[in-house]
Every structure is written in structure tokens, then in C-alpha cells.
Amino acid sequence: MMLAGAAVAGMTQAAAVAARSRKRHLRGALERLLTRLSLSPGDASTIAALTLRHPLAAGSLRRENLVRILLELAAAPSAESLHRAFGFAHASDAIRLLCAWDRRALELELSSPGEPLDLRQTRAVLAAAGPNPAIARIHSEFALAMQRATARYRAETRTLAAAAALAVVFALKLDSLELLARAARLQHARCPGAGLALSWMLLSLGAPFWYDRLKDLLHLRPEH
After folding, report:
1. How many domains, the chain?
2. 24-31, long-range: CB within 8 Å, 24+ apart, which pairs?
3. Which residues have CB under 8 Å from 148's CB, separation 6+?
4. Taking the C-alpha atoms of 71, 77, 79 and 85 in order, what is their torsion angle to the nearest 10 degrees?
5. Cα separation of 68 and 101, whole Å?
6. Model pLDDT, residue 207
7. Which of 137, 169, 184, 185 has most Cβ atoms within 10 angstroms of its Cβ?
């Protein structure tokens, strides 16, 4: 069961990577958030794609990094849609805001070096931008947008795990009831359908658990 669970976990991860599931849901969340800034769907799609290619978006995308990326994109003279979204008259307004942000961030780093970086960056951008409606909207709606994207991603991976578990169960003819009876040396009424269904349920719902147990057994879990 541990080997089968690890196989299901690996197949699920491989399918999610092949389908670009995480990036697709993240891009969708960014597009919906950007349309809330009065951007057209086409502009929101283009800017979301540029955002995800930015080095600051590597790994996990934080709220302050999103604001920084959008301001850097708005610093281009051709980014008229972002100029309107942020209320800038020209690209130079975005450049001035970025410079003010950096100055304020440096002041906070010197005065409060022990303060968490995320909090310091938030204070810096809010102090530099003032009551900018677009930045205020990003700060207020970013967490909810990411939570919804995460929920969609998890729902999709659960579906992939269920499909992978079904394939593994039928490929191996994995009958959990028969395995339990053999382990306990008991006789049981043969009902292959019930045993296969139980195996499918255990593997599809518990693939992460079985994967972790296999790593524990093989001492592959890193020491903390």
C-alpha cells in the first residue's frame, strides 16, 4: 500500500506538472484580480503572463512582490492600461513611486532591522504610495484571490489523484480486503469489487499519507 500510494502521489504530481495546473490557476487568479483594477480582460491576461515570468514571482508570489512587478511594468511608457489603473499621468509617476518605496524601505531597514521583511515592505509601499486606490485594492483582495486559486488547484489535484489511484488499483488488482484477510490469516467472503473500491478510496484520499510513510520507512525525510 505504501508503494502504491507513493506511485499515486508521483503520478498525480507528474500529471499536475504536465498540465501546468499550479501556474494556470495562479494566472487565472491574477487575471481576475487585475480586472478588478478596471483592466480589460485582454490587458489583464497579458499583464498576468508578464507577471509570472518576472523573477520576483519565482517560487511563491507575495502581495508586495505583485505590487512591485506591476509598478515596474507601469514604468514603461507603453503601459497605458496600468497608468490608468494606478492613476498615473505618465510612466515617470511609477518610477517616482518606486524610488520613494526604495527610500522608505531603506529607512525602515535602518530604523527597524528586526522587523519582518514582508511587514517592512508593506509599510514602505503604503507610505510611498499614499491612498492609491489600486494598491489598496490589491492589498485588500490579494489573499482571497490566492485562497480561491489554491482551492481550485487542490480540487484539480484530488481529481487527478482519484484517476491515478483507479489506474493503479486495476493495474495491480489491489484488493485491500484480501490483503487484510491474509495478514490476519482469516477467511473472508470473496467480494473483489468491494476490496478494489476500498483500495481506490484509500489510495485516492490518502496518497500524501502513503508517500510520507514510504519516505519515513526509507529514511528519506530530511532531518529538522
Report:
1. 1
2. 25/149, 25/150, 25/152, 25/153, 25/156, 26/52, 26/61, 26/146, 26/149, 27/52, 28/149, 28/152, 29/145, 29/146, 29/148, 29/149, 30/66, 30/145
3. 29
4. 60
5. 9
6. 67
7. 169
- For residue 223, what pLDDT is reported? 41
Output the pTM of the full model: 0.75
Residue 26 near residue 151 (C-beta atoms within 8 A):
no
Does residue 206 lie within any of the structural domains?
yes
Task: Provide the residue range defining the domain that includes 47.
Answer: 2-217
**Among residues 60, 26, 22, 15, which one has the least CA distance to residue 160?**
15
Q: What is the CA radius of gyration of the chain?
A: 25
What confidence tens digit (pLDDT) does each residue in 150-201 have?
889 888 888 888 898 889 888 888 887 777 777 666 665 566 678 888 888 8
Using DSSP's 3-state secondary structure scheme, residue 62 falls into coil
222 domain-assigned? no
**Degrees to nearest 5, angle at CA 216 with 214 and 221:** 110
76-94: pLDDT as tens digits? 999 999 999 999 999 999 9
